[in-house]
């Protein structure tokens, strides 16, 4: 009886410690990987401090959740490096009333970070099991303002357009034209353009109906794919 009590106590302590550890590791991640670089936007930092990245990665890499790199999430896909998630978020200048479209749900982590800041996130994933798992994770963690869909994001989400911001998290040679159409006036679109090892984040802005663009960071993202199914 006493022994099992001790065992339960020990288990409880491990759980609590892990919880604390994760929070500490998240703080450290924000300090060194984000503030230590060029992430200054208050809302972005707050969201990155809050969202439990370890809940979005497979168990076997959970201990690496707050390290400075991408991680495998199955189906040959990855969750982006925390810095890239924060960088893209900051570039979009998200506001509380914004409605945002994400192409490439993956683990659901980027969607959760945006959901901490904006009104609603619409997110599309082409790999069905990933989309379903992300939906489950987001629901479990209480993100009611993320709407998920399985499909080919090339076409965007016309029924919900226009969007104040659009984020594409898979690399492609050229911007899918429907995404420009679905961008609201003043809206921003960030997307990795190029081939896998020669890719740049491009930030597009719609001003007076015209699209302007600025080249940003060199990056490496998994490829944007097209499905016949959709
Ligand atoms: N934002 C994700 C990282 C995604 S990796 C996260 O936070 O975890 C890129 C994702 O884009 C992959 O899951 C891939 O399956 C998806 N993808 C690739 N092409 C797509 C398309 N045409 N439509 C929707 N999703 C796509």
TrEMBL record:
The active site is at residue 80. It holds the Pfam family PCMT. InterPro entries: PCMT, SAM-dependent_MTases_sf. Its EC number is 2.1.1.77. It is found in: Cytoplasm. The keyword Cytoplasm applies. GO terms for biological process: methylation. The keyword Cytoplasm applies. It catalyses: [protein]-L-isoaspartate + S-adenosyl-L-methionine = [protein]-L-isoaspartate alpha-methyl ester + S-adenosyl-L-homocysteine. GO terms for molecular function: protein-L-isoaspartate (D-aspartate) O-methyltransferase activity. Catalyzes the methyl esterification of L-isoaspartyl residues in peptides and proteins that result from spontaneous decomposition of normal L-aspartyl and L-asparaginyl residues. It plays a role in the repair and/or degradation of damaged proteins. This is Protein-L-isoaspartate O-methyltransferase. The lineage of its organism: Bacteria, Pseudomonadati, Bacteroidota, Flavobacteriia, Flavobacteriales.
């Amino acid at each position: 009886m006493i022994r099992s009590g001790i065992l339960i106590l020990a288990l409880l302590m491990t759980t609590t410690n892990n919880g604390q550890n994760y929070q500490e590791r998240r703080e450290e991640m924000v300090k060194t990987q984000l503030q230590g670089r060029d992430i200054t936007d208050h809302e972005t930092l707050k969201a990155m401090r809050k969202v439990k990245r370890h809940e979005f990665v497979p168990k076997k890499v959970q201990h690496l959740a707050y390290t400075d790199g991408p991680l495998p999430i199955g189906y040959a896909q990855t969750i982006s490096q925390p810095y890239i998630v924060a960088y893209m978020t900051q570039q979009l200048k998200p506001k509380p009333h914004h409605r945002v479209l994400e192409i490439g749900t993956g683990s659901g982590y980027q969607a959760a970070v945006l959901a901490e800041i904006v009104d609603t996130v619409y997110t599309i994933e082409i790999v069905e099991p990933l989309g379903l798992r992300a939906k489950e994770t987001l629901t479990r963690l209480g993100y009611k303002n993320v709407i998920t869909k399985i499909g080919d994001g090339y076409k965007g989400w016309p029924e919900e357009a226009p969007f104040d911001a659009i984020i594409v998290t898979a690399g492609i040679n050229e911007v899918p034209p429907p995404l420009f159409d679905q961008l609201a006036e003043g809206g921003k679109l960030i997307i990795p353009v190029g081939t896998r090892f020669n890719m740049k984040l491009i930030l597009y802005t719609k001003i007076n109906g015209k699209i302007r663009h600025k080249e940003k960071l060199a990056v490496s993202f998994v490829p944007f794919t097209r499905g016949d199914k959709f």
